[in-house]
Amino acid sequence: MTLVLVYLAIMVTHPIFNQFIPSKPITSYAFSTKSIIGLLFSVLAGANNIMVAFVEEVTYRHEGMYVFKSNKLLLILMLIVSSILFGFSHYYNFNGSFLASGPYVVAGAILGISYLISNNIWVPIVAHILFNSTDIIASITLLLLTIFK
Known about the structure:
By secondary structure, the protein is mainly alpha-helical. About 70% of the residues lie in helices and about 0% in strands. It contains five helices and no strands. It has helices spanning about 1-15, 35-65, 70-90, 100-120, 120-145. Helix 3 (about 70-90) packs antiparallel against helix 4. It is globular. The N and C termini lie far apart (about 35 Å).
């Protein structure tokens, strides 16, 4: 359920914030995904995204909010702060635009609320890992299609 809510939130809010993405990219990649080496690097990046999902959830949700579970006002404040920090940590996904990272602020709030409702850090961790797993699934699929043409 959390994963579906995160996908829906990003799909709905992305067009709103998309207008704030700078037109000139701030990063470029040396290897094209049209080559085997580029696809191997994409698989590596996908594996990295899965590990990052785990670390982000432990950092932003568990460490950022668990300490304040006894104080409801501070807990709500930390939910807001951790959601903003989560969104801003995706700054480079949007060519360096804090405003364009708004959909991920909303996604961070959904992941944080799912943690508070379930009282289980594994709920947002699994949802985030599943969300990020599309990268590695696509990379492995393209790699296999390239190898076995």
